[in-house]
Amino acid sequence: MGTQKKTSSSSEASEAPVIILQEDHLISPQRIDRDALKVLSRLQDAGHTAYLVGGGVRDLYMDKEPKDFDISTSARPGELRKLFRNSRTIGRRFRLVQIFFPGNHIIEVSTFRCRSEYDLEGTDKLLQSNNTFGSQVDDAFRRDLTINALMYDIKDGSILDYTGGVEDLKSRLIRIIGDPDRRITRDPVRMLRAVRHAARSDFSIEEQTWKAIQKHRAKLNLCPVSRIRDELLKDLRGGASRKWVELALDSGLFGELFPFYNDLLLKGKDNLKYRQELVAALAVADRLHEKGNCIPEYMLIGLLLLPWAMYTFPVLANSTDQNRGDAYAMSLTIRKKLDINLLHLNLKKETREQIAGLLSHIPLFASNDGGTWPNWLSKKSYFKERSHFYMMYREAGGGKPVKALIVPRTSAKPKLKKKRGSSGGGRNPVFSRKEQKGGVFGFKR
Ligand code: ATP
Ligand code: MG
């Protein structure tokens, strides 16, 4: 058979890899990005060990198109910089080398990293700076999920599996590598990553991993807000936000991300109805994403807030004669609520204004929805974004599908000059506790 050594699929996997030979999997070099192949061969020719790793191998194994092709190597950042002149070193949490190719194409290469977090005593410590290098085995075990820890060798087309990832891919299981309690405590963002990949691939979450997520969900609040926001947007844009929201709700992660929603979605007597509405709103995003549309951040968050807005401001769903003045007044009221409810996400003021604008103008568009839009409305600077949002709202409620999304990524308003120290840079650790010390791997010192 294809595997050269048997191992358990559990996180107690052995340190010797299972090797899956070329003839026993679907990955062929033709499906690997040409620039990534160039990097891999140059590294190997220079005497280094180098593998294709992470999501690229996972996706190719499942016969999917990878989003990116990451490389892990024994070469140190300095050696990489010498080998690839057109490169730069990036990363605060850990150093990566980006190699530039024509057409703005970038290949990211990381040096094998150590397993320092496994040596920390106790289950309550956050992970310290992780720029210490390690062996390729260490590099596999320091990764988040078993399915993300496979290494593909271009020399002979084999896959090296140290953590039982291939078995988990076959069983369609998401499993955190090692002791999930510890691994989540070291980096709580791994909970979001586990839920994301379960949603995206339609995999189940392995029991110990699932229990650990439920147990440690509140630890999300220790992560820097920029990381949480980035992860959230990836989930909303990934094309599986519908499945994501269900898992996020069931695991309790959604309640940590949007506590103001808890009464409505978890406790309220109509919680199932609101949950269905939320799923329906995100289904519109998934459908549009599938068709290649890129929905801007403010619209995605607007969609996510629809059931809450309809509940909190019943006039949004019921009013049939909203005029422009009413819509403006409503946008200010909604803005005030958003300033409180979304404070922890550290969204730009402009984004919060845009979201309030989208939600507040639903009745205005509903009352003018008669096949063609009146001239005065279609001339408004906000027309494109708000009419599209209204149509998404209409689709979520069972109406006609939105054809295509042609909306500006930012508002029509000119950009305000940013004040020094203002939010929006995403560096503000709103989620981390002031007294939290140490830790660079996603945690603020
Ligand atoms: P995508 O298809 O979204 O790119 P991905 O798994 O490749 O999925 P990346 O964010 O590109 O996600 O990360 C690349 C790899 O780095 C992952 O596959 C995983 O092995 C590792 N990784 C990412 N985040 C973490 C983390 N928080 N802890 C441990 N390993 C991580
Ligand atoms: Mg990736």
From TrEMBL:
CDD domains documented for this protein: NT_ClassII-CCAase
GO biological process: RNA processing
Domain annotation tRNA nucleotidyltransferase/poly(A) polymerase RNA and SrmB- binding: ranges: 202-263
Gene Ontology terms for molecular function: nucleotide binding; nucleotidyltransferase activity; RNA binding
Biased composition (Basic residues): 412-421
Pfam families (UniProt xref): PolyA_pol, PolyA_pol_RNAbd
Domain Poly A polymerase head, chain residue ranges per copy: 50-175
UniProt keyword annotations, A-Z: Nucleotide-binding, RNA-binding, Transferase
Disordered: annotated span: 411-445
PANTHER family cross-referenced by the UniProt entry: POLYNUCLEOTIDE ADENYLYLTRANSFERASE FAMILY PROTEIN
Family membership noted in the UniProt record: Belongs to the tRNA nucleotidyltransferase/poly(A) polymerase family.
Identification of the protein by name: Poly(A) polymerase
Species, as recorded: Candidatus Desulfobia pelagia
